[in-house]
From TrEMBL, chains A, B:
Species name: Pelosinus propionicus DSM 13327
Protein name: DNA-binding transcriptional regulator, AcrR family
Top-rank lineage group of the source organism: Bacteria
Molecular function terms, GO-annotated: DNA binding
PROSITE patterns: HTH_TETR_2
Keyword DNA-binding set for record: yes
Transmembrane intervals: none
Every HTH tetR-type domain range: 6-66
Pfam family, one: TetR_N
UniProt KW keywords: DNA-binding
Signal peptide range in chain numbering: none
DNA-binding residues: 29-48
Length: 189, 189
DNA sequence: TCGATTTTGTTTATTAATCAACATATGTGA
DNA sequence: TCACATATGTTGATTAATAAACAAAATCGA
């Protein structure tokens, strides 16, 4: 792809993310973003229809990175479920400022919705991948695991990460293993 | 000016400076520079005729910053000659890696020549500014002060800055004050 | 509330950057 | 020494980014 596109997108997204950390979303203007990104205002509009589109793509980028982190590498299962989960918590820790802002913002509902949707999808994939069948209702089970995991993550982030990422991965894994052989809603063991 | 020009120049110059620090000038290629700067190779050629032009402009940029540092601020002489000289040594310290490379490189003669020329010009300006007249030969005096100052700077840089910049400024100032009321070849008192 | 300022979103002409292709030059290893 | 690879410098067609200008909407301050 034309490297200009990549550079502009990166500069705009970086500027937006930076502004997100230091002020409320409602206070951020396209002007500010363009100025900080050092691109023309028109360039912003050529990549994003408006600031909400920018927000959504920003969320999408971050959540993609989040869920990438918990995919076992390639075909070799050299990385265990616990390792992958640990990597995920490490990633969250490194980007805690961003995720904290997203979870605590009153005006941003898109983030929670998208996180939940992606988590549900991820849990379903893990169930399929591990060939898990259950007596109970599958739909409900998926919702159960997804919400449980998000709840733990949200609590950990918004409470300034009181435990290490290793410990969190351990505990979450242990909780999930109690019920089914679903070793992790995000990863396979 | 079109911000694209500024951004491209900056990216290219940054990449070149970075490469200068980690390898010899002769080993640096335009391809490398373009790659590291993340610009098309043609863009490099649209700003610089060849790698020697790039080197010269790089030297020019750095030396301009060097001599900017020792100009007293604006019209108010709130910053004394010593302070300005101190700022100059501080700047040299911060960019010691670059200046050391330049001074020690066998293949780069342009840097020493340009440094000497700018130093001579600076000494002449300081003489004029302070209205200094002397019995001796002015030309020779200018050469004397210019070479003396460069010699001290070169020794300090290539010997890993054995004294603090404050001390160096002090000592150099004191040496120059012994002869004329030329308080500093780089600054006015 | 009202006037002023800022922001938004869009358009247009212009320009810099891009990619691909090329011939030439330089250098490198067998 | 001679292929082979890499680097140089240039060209032309295409595209993304730019600045400037604009009307409309939103925000702000008095």
């Amino acid at each position: 792809m034309d490297r200009r596109i990549e550079k502009s997108r990166q500069a705009i997204m970086d500027a937006f993310t930076k502004l997100m950390l230091e002020k409320d979303f409602e206070k951020i203007t396209i002007n500010e973003i363009a100025e900080l990104a050092n691109v023309n205002r028109g360039t912003v509009y050529s990549h994003y229809v408006d600031i909400f589109d920018l927000l959504n793509q920003c969320i999408e980028n971050h959540l993609n990175k989040l869920f990438e982190n918990c995919q076992p590498r390639g075909n070799d299962s050299s990385i265990s479920g616990k390792d992958a989960l640990c990597k995920t918590f490490n990633y969250l820790e490194q980007n805690a400022f961003f995720y904290s802002k997203m979870l605590m913002s009153k005006s941003i509902t898109a983030f929670r919705n998208r996180l939940h949707a992606l988590m549900v999808k991820s849990v379903e994939e893990q169930l399929d991948m591990n060939g898990i069948t259950t007596d109970g209702n599958r739909e409900i089970m998926v919702q159960y695991f997804a919400s449980a995991t998000i709840g733990v993550i949200e609590w950990w982030i918004t409470n300034s990460m009181p435990y290490s990422s290793e410990y969190m991965a351990e505990q979450l894994l242990s909780l999930m293993e109690r019920y089914q052989n679903v070793t992790a809603p995000l990863t396979r063991s």
